[in-house]
C-alpha cells in the first residue's frame, strides 16, 4: 500500500538508517540517542550498515544494542555511503526513512517531531539544523567546529543562522516519506560524496518539498584536525561537479563561491608570476586575508584562544572545496553533456 494509505490506517513506522565505518569513538552515543527516541518499540527499526570497519565499531554496536530487536547490523562490503544507504533501503520496513550518521546524535523527541512536521506540512522530507561540536578539547578542534557553524565558513542553511521554519534545498538527517524513494529511486552509487545532496536536488526538481524546522537541532561532531577537514571538503568539491553535471546546474549559487575564490586567487598568482610583480596577487589575496581575519575575531569572540586558528580553519573549508571543484572539473571533463 502507498504511504498515504498506511498513514490513514495506522501511525507511521520509522526506519533509521545508519551508514558507518570506523566510528567506534562516537557510535555508542549516536545509537543510544536513536534508541532513546520516545516511540513505541514496534514503531521503529534501526539498520546499522557497517562498511567493514577496521576498529571496534561492530563490537560497540553489539554491546549497545544488546538484545534489542529493533537493531539489525548489515554489511556494506563496498565501504561507501551510497551503497550502505541503498542496501538498507532494500531491507527497510518503515513508512518513514531517516538517515543518521555515526558522528552525530538525535535530540530527544526528534522522530516524534518529524512525524508531526510531515503531517502538518505535507512535505516529502523534514528535518532540523546541525549543531557543530568539536571532536575533543583542543583549540584546533574547537576552531573547526566554530568555523563550520559560521556563515563565513560553510554558509549552509542547515548549519547556521536560520530562525524561520520553511522549505530548503537540502538538510542533514532528514526524515523522508518512503514513497519518495518509490517514486524517485534510490541514492546514486557513483557519488561517494554528495549523494544526499544529489537526491535532495532530484526531489526538489521533481516538485517535492524539503522542510526545515530550526527548533530541531542535532549535535554533530566535526573533524578534529585541519588535514582531515581538508580531505572531507576536497572530496565534497570533487563530487559536487558530478552532481552539477547530472542536473545541468547547482541547487544554489553559493556552491560556486569557493570555486570562484580559488580561481581568482590562482589568477592573481599567475599574473604576478608572469609580470614578476606582487601587485596582482596582493590585490586579490589581501582582501581575502583581511576578511578571514575579521571573521575570525567575530567568530571566536566567546573562545579567544581559537582566533589565531580560525583563519586556517576558514581557509581549509573554502580552499579545499574550491580546489576540489577544479579537480572535479578535470576528472569529470569527459562527462559533460552526459
General description of the model:
The structure is a single chain. The protein is of the alpha/beta class. The protein has helices spanning 3-9, 27-35, 57-65, 81-91, 110-121, 139-148, 178-184, 195-205, 226-247, 257-275, 279-299, 310-331, and strands at residues 14-20, 44-50, 71-75, 96-99, 125-133, 166-167, 175-177, 210-221. It contains 12 helices and 8 strands. It has an 8-stranded mixed beta sheet with strand order 3-2-1-4-7-5-8-6, with helices on both faces. Helix 10 crosses helix 12 (310-331) and helix 11 (279-299) packs across helix 12 (310-331). The radius of gyration is 21 Å and the shape is globular. The protein starts with a helix and ends in a 7-residue tail after the last helix.
Question: Which helices and strands occur, and which strands form pairs?
Answer:
Elements: H1 3-9, E1 14-20, H2 27-35, E2 44-50, H3 57-65, E3 71-75, H4 81-91, E4 96-99, H5 110-121, E5 125-133, H6 139-148, E6 166-167, E7 175-177, H7 178-184, H8 195-205, E8 210-221, H9 226-247, H10 257-275, H11 279-299, H12 310-331
Parallel strand pairs: 1-2, 1-4, 2-3, 5-8
Antiparallel strand pairs: 4-7, 5-7, 6-8
Helix pairs in contact: 2-3, 6-12, 9-12, 10-11, 10-12, 11-12
Amino acid at each position: 500500500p502507498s504511504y498515504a494509505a498506511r498513514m490513514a490506517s495506522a501511525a507511521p513506522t520509522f526506519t533509521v538508517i545508519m551508514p558507518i565505518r570506523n566510528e567506534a569513538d562516537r557510535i555508542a552515543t549516536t545509537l543510544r540517542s536513536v534508541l532513546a527516541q520516545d516511540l513505541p518499540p514496534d514503531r521503529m527499526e534501526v539498520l546499522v550498515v557497517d562498511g567493514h570497519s577496521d576498529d571496534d565499531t561492530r563490537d560497540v554496536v553489539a554491546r549497545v544494542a544488546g538484545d534489542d530487536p529493533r537493531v539489525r547490523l548489515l554489511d556494506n562490503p563496498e565501504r561507501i555511503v551510497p551503497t550502505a544507504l541503498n542496501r538498507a533501503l532494500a531491507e527497510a520496513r518503515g513508512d518513514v526513512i531517516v538517515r543518521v550518521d555515526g558522528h552525530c546524535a538525535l535530540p530527544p523527541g526528534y522522530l516524534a517531531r518529524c512525524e508531526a512536521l510531515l503531517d502538518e506540512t505535507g512535505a516529502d522530507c523534514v528535518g532540523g539544523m546541525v549543531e557543530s561540536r568539536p571532536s575533543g578539547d583542543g583549540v584546533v578542534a574547537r576552531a573547526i567546529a566554530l568555523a563550520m557553524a559560521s556563515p563565513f565558513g560553510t554558509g549552509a542553511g542547515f548549519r547556521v543562522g536560520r530562525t524561520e521554519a520553511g522549505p530548503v534545498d537540502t538538510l542533514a538527517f532528514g526524515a523522508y516519506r518512503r514513497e519518495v524513494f518509490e517514486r524517485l529511486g534510490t541514492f546514486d552509487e557513483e557519488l561517494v560524496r554528495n549523494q544526499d545532496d544529489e537526491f535532495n536536488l532530484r526531489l526538489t526538481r521533481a516538485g517535492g518539498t524539503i522542510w526545515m524546522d530550526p527548533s530541531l537541532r542535532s549535535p554533530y561532531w566535526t573533524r578534529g584536525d585541519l588535514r582531515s577537514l581538508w580531505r572531507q571538503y576536497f572530496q565534497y568539491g570533487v563530487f559536487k561537479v558530478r552532481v552539477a553535471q547530472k542536473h545541468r546546474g547547482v541547487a544554489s549559487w553559493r556552491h560556486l563561491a569557493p570555486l570562484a575564490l580559488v580561481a581568482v586567487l590562482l589568477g592573481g598568482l599567475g599574473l604576478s608570476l608572469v609580470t614578476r610583480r606582487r601587485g596582482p596577487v596582493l590585490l586579490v589575496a589581501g582582501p581575502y586575508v583581511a576578511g578571514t581575519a575579521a571573521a575570525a575575531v567575530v567568530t571566536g569572540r566567546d573562545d579567544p584562544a581559537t582566533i589565531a586558528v580560525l583563519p586556517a580553519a576558514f581557509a581549509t573549508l573554502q580552499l579545499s572545496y574550491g580546489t576540489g571543484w577544479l579537480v572535479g572539473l578535470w576528472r569529470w571533463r569527459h562527462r559533460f553533456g552526459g
